[in-house]
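Hello again,

I reread your note about wanting to compare the complex against the isolated chains. To keep things tidy I'm splitting this into two emails, and this first one only covers the full assembly. Below are the input lines as submitted, including protein chains and any nucleic acid or small-molecule components. They are followed by the predicted structure of everything together. The single-chain runs will come separately.
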Amino acid sequence: MQKANSVEQEYELICVIVNFGLGSKALKAARKIGVSGGTIMLARGTADNRWLRFFELTDIRKEIVLMVCEKELGRAALAEIDRVVKFTRPRHGIAFTMPVGGFIGASHHDYEFKEQNGGETSMHRAVFVVVDKGKGETVMEMARAAGVRGGTIINGRGSGIHETAVFLNMEIEPEKEIVLMLTPVELTDRIVAAVREGLKIDEPGNGIIWVQSVTEAYGIVT
Amino acid sequence: MGRQGGRLNILVNLFKDNVKTVIPIAAVVLVLNFTLVPLGFSLIARFLVGSVLIIVGLSLFLFGVEIGITPMGSLTGTSLVKTNRLSVVLVAGLILGFLISIAEPGLMVLAFQVDFVTLSEISAWNLLVVVSIGLAVMVSLGFLRVVVHMSLKLFLLLCYLVIFVLAFFTQPEFLAIAFDASGATTGILAVPFLLALAVGISRLRKDSKASEEDSFGLVAEASAGAIMSVLILNIIIGTQEYAVASLEPIEVTNTAIFLPFLAHIVDAVEESFISLLPLTVCLFVLQKTLFHLERKQFARMVKGFVYAFLGLIVFLAGVNGGFMAIASEIGLRLAMLENKAWLVVTGFALGFFTILAEPAVFVLTHTIEDVTSGYVKRKAVGAALSIGVGWAVAMAIVRILTPSMQLWHVLLPGYIIAIGMMYWAPNLFVGIAFDAGGVATGPMTATFILAFVQGAASAFPGANLLRDGFGMIALVAMAPIITLQILGFIFQARSRKQGVDTGAES
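Full-complex prediction:
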């Protein structure tokens, strides 16, 4: 993990959507390759068919796995997850990656946002903060003090570099909260700094932050 | 994600899950059949038909619970809190608690048994109403607890202190009836509804940790209410000697294979109808007064009730027609063997596997996964439950084998341990553990395991069928409280971050 991560480092967000129960396997596969951690959320998927709709048989429990890592590592991790989950077969789930502008946590401490959408400048950025369950509200308070107008807290579970326990052959993934905030570009650095400072993210085990570019945003009052 | 192809996914998945839970039970029975106690073709065939019915019935029922009863419960909880009037919340708690309890088929059976055993000294209606009131009051207080942010540990501690004091003044028969009443009231429909209700009520708390912890505990509080009310009933009417008319063991006279199921279907339809009726009435009343759901959403819930109704009929027909007779036969035949150890081992194995086919257990583990976003996995809770219930059934058998052993010899130390552990166990797991106590005593335990234990007891001239059978249910309700809190300790220890405090620059 102790890679000399220069500011040149490019990060990616890996997003995997699979049937309930496979999320932990996907995360385990990625960690084997060297991804430092990930967060899993519960979700629902739906199917489209008139008869099934009548019998209300359309809902399927899904899991969404989010992982942030260096770009090259992401490629390898995705290949390994594919080997386990087998996305090419029908109904085995989907996976995709998105560029990440900046990442703090899991021993990456150099934060400097880099636009990654081909020079197209955007008005907003999305700030994601993953913390232990119960701290989401604290993050919101810090961010609000720094000028953000609102945010969304999503429940999840996950494991980072400090959480690697196994019990009865299953990974123990403590509960997390993901805070998503859309912020104006000029405010982002201040908010990131406030949360980073408030949570002591530079000390291990206190959470991670990543920031992504947003091309368009509606409904944000400034 | 693909949009074509047969997408009966959820039902198929439920079906697969249930096949996996029923197969081990069938395997234990078949192994016994071919080794220690040959049971004959007709019983085995009935048992296998019963297994298939249970798998189908459980799948339909659980699906109905998922789209009908659970959403209704949590919506009720949330809507009640949103009215922002304490009086509404408390009165609703009383009404809902009373209605689910009074319509519980298991409690009715128990009430009529008590009526019979006490030679109508305590009429069935008396007991039914008293237990329902007790449960209603405790559900209402349980709501109040969440609203005023009182800790579940403290609340449960107070409940059990009251129970201990009351138990001191009651006679042994009533102690057994009280614990059985608590198992009986938290039955197949009450548990999913109460669990969802608690999730709905606590969901609105801003503190996400507290909200998660308050999602559990309501079933436990309701069970405690049932116990208290029976104990109080006994103190009011005073101790007296009852000419205990002992229960007859289940007779195996019928050799037909499908006929018993037909005979049980009528009962099953009636039972399912009665138990679903109050919730269905509530659903329509609440829709008009509180929910005001869109047609489509409401239709989905109604369809869920239809699924649950059909599933319950098939499930009950399967359990009563195929499982009861064989269990009591196995119990009786094993008890007559020279080596009694087989009886204890079989008891453990049956308890271990049967609990996983208990409908409410599936609902509980599912709720836990949803509330904790998958942190506390179904497999872990299932393992803890299996070990606990297996141990409880084995203990019940040991107690039958040793007449000098009283029920409280096991119950008292057990509850002292369970309550003592509460002090150190994580809040979330305390709620889960005490809820699991009520959850474990569902229709599978109350029929299949009870028949096994009573069958074994009937081989001994000295055993009291009523007391020994009831004792088993009390033990099954207690053991998971201990094993799940142990699971809590394990999760607490394993979730701790490694190398954070020591090596700050990992």
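For quick reference: The first helix of chain A runs from residue 23 to 33.

B.
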